[in-house]
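Record 1 of the preview.
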Amino acid sequence: MSDKEIMEGILLTTKGVCDLYMHGSIESGTPQVHQAFNAALNDALCMQSAIYQQMAGHGWYTAAQAQPQQIQQVKQKFATAG
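->
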């Protein structure tokens, strides 16, 4: 297993953890539980960002720049959908 594959697995797992913490926060029944999930979510998001930065630094995870025309098309789509 390559370093890239290991990092992809870690990133995928971290994204899943973020999703679970977000839902825990949304569904929490008390302010204390809500705060605990929010703190855990923030930590997991910071970890996810650090993993992404490491992967991007190695060229393992690249994000394409959206063209201005594509952005306008999406804006128009959602402006008329409402």
